Each structure stands twice: as structure tokens, then as C-alpha cells.
Amino acid sequence: MDLTVNALIDYAREKAEVTQNQGIRRECKRRLLDTLACAVAGRATPIGVMAVVTASKYSGQHSATVWGTTNKSSLEMATFANGTLLRCLDLSDMYRNNCGGHPSDVIAPILSVAESFQSTGKRTLTAIEIAYEIYCGFCDSIDANTNGWDQPLYGAVAAVVGASVLLDLDAEQMRNAISLALVPNMPLYQTRTGELSAWKGCAAANGSRNAVFAALLARDGYTAPDLPIEGSMGLWKILGQFKWSLNADLERPAVCRTHFKSFPICYHGQAAAWAAIDIYENLINVDEIEVIEIHTYSTAVKLMGADASRWAPNTRETADHSLPYVVAVGLLFGSLNKQYFEGHLLSDSRIQSLMSKVKVIDDPIMTHGYPKIVPCKLNIRMLGGRVREAVIQYPKGHEKNPISDGDLEEKASSLFEEFLGKKRTKTVLEAIWEIDQAETVGPLIQLMSN
Amino acid sequence: MWKGCAAPNGARNGVFAALLAEKGMTGPENSIDGSHGLRELLGKFDLGPLANKGDVFAVENSNLKFFLSEYHSQSPIAHAVELSQEVSPEEIRNITVHTYWFAWSEIGSEPEKWHPTTRESADHSLPFIVAAVFRERAFSDLIFGGDRLNDPEIYKLADKVAVVEDPSFTAMFSKKIPCRLVVELNDGRTLVRESEFPRGHICNPMTVEEIESKFKGLANRVISSDKTSKALDLLRRMEGWSSVDALFQVLESPTLS
Is B101 part of a structural domain of the chain? Predict the structure, then answer.
């Protein structure tokens, strides 16, 4: 008997039977809103286009909509496309403890399954809460990433349990589904190592695709390898023994604790971006800047300021993972919307001149406080020795500096409006806030179709 | 059940990867040599040289199964079929299968291998298989199902079967797949059959006729013999095909849809 798998099943089946707490339900909706906005706007990116085109080649008896389009695809391929779309802009939510990732990845498989199997809005929100708890609970338990394993390992398990709830699988089917999502899908961390490829944003979607496949197999009666976690060749053999943390905070489950991003850049640059905008708003003359010191924690330095490529980004993917670029843009324009990561700005001489003045400093005290705190201090020396400084401990959207519903709507609207127009965006927002009243989620998805 | 599905699932993901790459998807760099790549997990390894024109290709080197049974039971089954033509079950005092350690441990050591109760254990039970062949004087995979699992005559014969690891065989394995079947009769005679490679092994290859006959036997379970002949005819001329559609039209089976 695999006690860890049993614990996941017991947790999910219990949760699925109780009425969701209102406050928690609101947090699920906030994440649904944020995620769908990211996905719809993601459609315009090259990878988003590729995902939509690829999915349109497939069909199936179980089908689902590719978000933002009128295309239907097989449930699995729609899940893949939707999972890719929501990650294209690098603007979806984030969680990190022993390891981390983007828990909103689970929304693609859950909403796609919900559409295909006509789940109610309430059931869908509950499935989101359950999947978040499993995703973040794993991140609380053990560091899989430095051992060489990538996010879809736990993303697929979270997704398959959420999907199983929507498919009303019994305990035995759910046991098979979890095993079938985990055992064949061990993704290498190489996806996030070295020069990054398009797969960076698709890896989680692929885990979700395989999770949906696993749930459907289990529903059809497939039996799966026994003891997928605790068996002699199971997950424990690879990662060592660990307890999968669940229900660590009953008042505030994981879905209340993930961090929203404000800017379409790596999470570890969010504080630096806010600090730069803070200084911009105090009317600094950038021509008088002599030196820009960015003090931050070592993870941020490693991911966004470790080598010369971050001072001369050639691609969008490198620019949005570059502290010098992000701070230079913030100081120059007071904003970091996605248009600042487009081709022509990458070679803008004003940005390059500011980047050349940037020093990135690994601050041991900040590193010690991470990941509880995700701080950044900008220290700018001006001509004549004047100094400007801005410190951000928790960027807006962090659990400790929550983004208001209004600000979240503003972020979402700016993403939706380009594709849906103002009027339809307003209707979509209303439909999301009222999704718990909906008999099915299909109408919401159709509202986003263009 | 996943045992037989895991490889097809890998193939499913392989096809998906090829189709993504065709659409222009870029994948992680250095998936084998990178700091979180395959070598990091498995340790250093080198791929052997890939075959060139004139060399032996891997596709020529894989072993076919002759009987619809577990690989290590292939030679014991062949010898049992031969010897069962010469003796009747009542004449048998005992049967000894001499084999290598791996076969002994996988299909010939645990007590359940003598009296299996499920299909999955029956087809991994050497004493049961050998006993059933002597009882039926032939082999077919029908012995793994239905009333054969409750046949007292098979169980009586199975009790006369011993499986013995021969250290010299263990030393030869897996270069060779040796087997010796020894049957002692009530009248004192001893019959022996021995081989180093089962039929279908590359060192004891199946003829084209044998492979065709295997194909017919299996295909006839789901399609008519007329369609089976058509399919065989097509397969013989495969190098001339412009697409594979014709074959699958012939192989369509109404009973399976």
C-alpha cells in the first residue's frame, strides 16, 4: 500500500465533498482570472501561435476549446495548447519553497476537462483548490529541482488529481490515475538549464497533457504500476523518502498563497522592477546616472544577472530574465509591459547605455531571508554624488503584499482587451467572478473565443 | 496492465515530439550531455558505433518468439512438444528442466509456479507450462486460460516437474539461451533434449514460412483467412508500397471495433 498516494486520494475525496469556503473560492477565481488573461494574450506570441496551430490538427470524441479561439481539439491537445498559452507571457502566478513553479499550470487541464465533461463552476473551483494544494504541498516537502527533476513531475500529479475529481473517479481509479501520471512522466530539469528553448513554456503543458491522458485511461479501467511513490523503484528511490505536505494551513490553503506577477518577467525580477518604477516616479534624470547597484538574493542573481548575456540580451526570453534590462527599462519608461520586450527595444541605445552602468550584487542577508522575503534594493549614484535608493521587500502580488481585486482586474483587462475589446472583456470578467453560479464552464470559454 | 502499455506510451510521446519539431518547436539544449541531462542521471556512457553499409544492423539482430509464451520458456516448450510425441503422460516418472539462473528465478522457483491460478502467473510458470504441453502434446496459449488452470491432470504432471539451475548454463547466459529437458520414464528409460538457442533466436532463425505461419495463426483469430492471405500478400511486397493504407484496410477487424 502506497500511503503517500492514499493520502493524496483521501485529501482530494474529502475536499471534493465539502462546500468550498467563500474566501478560498474567491482566491480560486482570482487565479482563474489572472490565468485566463495570460492565456488569451499569450496567443499573439510565436509559441502561442504554434500551440494553436498544432492543436488545430487534432480532434477527438473528448474535445475541448483552445482558449481565445473557436477551435476545438482533442481534450489532450487542447490541454497542451491551453497550458502553453497560459505560460507564453511568463506572467502567470508563482510559488516557491523547497522547489517551485507556476501552480496555475493546473488550470489548463482542469478547465479543459471541466468543459469536456460539463462540470459545474463550483466543482471546477474545488478541483483548482485541490490541485494547487497538491502542487504547492510538494514544493513545501522536498527539492526535486536541484536533484534534476522539473516542475511537470508534481504538476502532472496535481493535475491528474484535479481531473480525477471532475471525472468522479473512485478511489481505485484515482490510484491508477496518479500512478499513470507519475511513473511514465519524469521530466529532466535540463529544460531550465543553459540556453533556454521554447520548451521552457511548454514542458508543464506537456505534463498536463499526459495527466489528462492518465485520468482518461484510469476512467477506462486501465490498471497502473503499484506503489508509484513508495515502491522499490518509485519516486522515493529517486528523491529519497519524504512526506507530501497537505493541509498545512487549513485557513489559507495553497491557492491563497501563490504570488501574482505584475510584470511579464521572471518572478525574481519583480521586486527590482517595482524599485526601478519607484525611482522613475520620483522624477530622476537618467542622464545623470553614474552607477546602478542592484542588491538582491542569490537565486535572483543566478537566474537574472549571472553572466554577460544578461547585459546584452538578444531574445525576449533572455531580456525578461535580465536584471540589468528590467531595471533599465523601469528607470527609462516607468513601466514594464510586454511591449518593452519586443525586438527593436533590445538594441535601444538608451537601454544599453543604462545597462552598462548596472552592477548586480549578491547580498548575503537578502539571500538568507529568501524565499520568505524576495527583496531588492536599488542604489543609484548620480552625478555630483547624490544617491537615490528604493527598497522592495515584497513586490505587489506577493502573498504579503496582496494585489487588490481592482488592480488584478486592471492587469487582466489590459491583457484581454487587445483581443476581446473593452465590452467583451467586461463580460468575461463578470463571468469569471460568477463562475460558481454557472451550470457549466463552456459559456465562459466561448466568451473568450475570437 | 501498464507493463504492456508503458512502451507504447513512450512511442506516443515520441510521435508527439516529432510532430512538434516539425512545427518548429525548439527543445532543451544538451538533453543528454547537459548538467541536468541523461548522462547526469545514468553516468557516463557511449553509444556503440551505429551500423554502416555492409555491417549487421540492429534490426537483423533481434530475437523473435516462436511460441506465444514468455521468452525463457521458449526452448523448454520446444523440447516438451518434441518429447510429448514419444511418451504419454502415464509413462512419465519425472521431468527435469535444466536452465540458467535468470529463468529459474523468474519462472521456475516460487511454489505458485506449479499451481498458478491466474493467466498472468500461468504464462510465467515453467513447471505448469511444461506439464500442460506433455498433457496436450502440443503448445498453444489456450493453456493459460479457461479450465486448463483447474485441470487436475496438468497439476499432477506439474508435480513431477523439477526446475534446476545449471551453473554452466548460467555462465553461458545471455550470449546463449541454453536448455536441457530430461524425462525419466517408469520403465527406466531416460529421454533427453538439449539446445543452446530457441527457435527464433538469431542463431536459430525462424524461416519465412514459420513467421508467416505465426502471422496466420494470430491474424486468423480476428480476421477471415481470406483477409489474412491478402494481408500476407501485401506484406510480401511492402518495398513497393507508396503508402501503408492498403494494409490497414485489409487488417480492419469488425469484431474489434
Answer: yes
Task: Strands of B79-232 (E only): list them.
Answer: 92-99, 161-165, 179-185, 190-195
* Residues of A at the B interface, defined by Cβ within 8 angstroms: 50, 53-54, 57, 148, 179-180, 183-184, 188-195, 197-200, 202, 210, 217, 222-225
Task: Give the ipTM of the model, two decimals please.
Answer: 0.85
Query: What is the fold of A3-262+424-447?
Result: 2-methylcitrate dehydratase PrpD (1.10.4100)
* Among candidates A190, A210, A222 on the partner chain, residue whose Cβ is nearest the Cβ of B5: A222
- DSSP 3-state of B174: coil
For residue B24, the chain A residues in CB contact (below 8 A) are 50
Domain that holds residue B129: 71-195
Which residue's entry shows cell 538594441?
Answer: A347
Q: Within a 10 A sphere around the Cβ of A305, how many other Cβ atoms? A: 26
Q: Which residues of B touch A197 (CB under 8 A)?
A: 26-29
* CATH number of the domain encompassing residue B91: 3.30.1330.120
The H or E element spanning position B12 is helix B6-22
Q: Are residues B164 and B228 in the same domain?
A: no
Q: Which residues of B touch A223 (CB under 8 A)?
A: 1-2
**Cis (ω within 30 of 0) for the bond into A353?**
no
pTM of the full predicted structure?
0.88
Tell me if the domain spanning A267-392 has CATH number 3.30.1330.120. yes
Clarify whether residues B112 and B141 are in a common domain: yes
Are residues B102 and B179 both part of a single domain? yes
Query: Which residue in the set A54, A189, A192 is minimally distant from B23, CB to CB?
Result: A54
Q: State the nearest Cα–Cα gap between A190 and chain B, in angstroms.
A: 5
Work out how many domains chain B is built from and give that number. Answer: 2
Overall residue count recorded for chain B in this entry: 257
Report CB contact under 8 Å: A148, B40: yes
Distance CA A65, CA A443 (A): 11
Q: Would you call A190 and B34 a contact, using CB atoms and an 8 Å cutoff?
A: yes
With residue A290 as reference, give the H or E element that holds it. Answer: strand A289-296
Per-residue pLDDT 10s for chain B (257 aa) are 888 899 999 999 999 999 999 999 999 988 998 888 998 888 888 888 899 988 989 999 899 999 999 999 999 999 999 999 999 999 999 999 999 999 999 999 999 899 998 888 899 999 999 999 999 999 999 999 888 888 999 999 999 999 999 999 999 998 999 999 999 999 999 999 999 999 999 999 999 999 999 999 999 998 999 999 999 999 999 999 999 999 998 888 765 44
Question: Which grid coordinates belong to A418?
Answer: 487587445
Residues of A in contact with B1 (CB under 8 A): 222-224
> Under an 8 A CB cutoff, do B1 and A223 touch?
yes
Select the residue from A56, A99, A182, A190 to test the B interface by mutation, using most B Cβ atoms within 10 A: A190
CA distances from B204 to A7, B61, B99, B199, B218 (A): 52, 12, 18, 5, 22
Q: Which of B1, B13, B24 sits opposite A50 (nearest CB)?
A: B24
What gap in Å lies between CA B11 and CA A350, rounded to an integer?
A: 51
B185 and B128 belong to one structural domain: yes
Cα atoms found within 13 Å of the Cα of residue B144, Cβ hemisphere only: 15
Residue B19 grid cell: 510532430
Same domain (yes/no): B188, B208:
no
For residues A401 and A261, the answer to whether their CB atoms sit within 8 Å is no
Verify whether the Cβ–Cβ distance B10 to A184 is below 8 Å.
yes
CB-CB contact of A222 with A176 (8 Å): yes
Report, as ranges of residue numbers, the positions in chain A whose pLDDT lies below 70. Answer: none
Instruction: In whole angstroms, give the CA distance from residue B129 to residue A146.
Output: 49
User: How many degrees, rounded to 5, is the angle at CA A344 between CA A338 and CA A349?
Assistant: 110
Peptide bond into A371 cis (omega under 30): yes
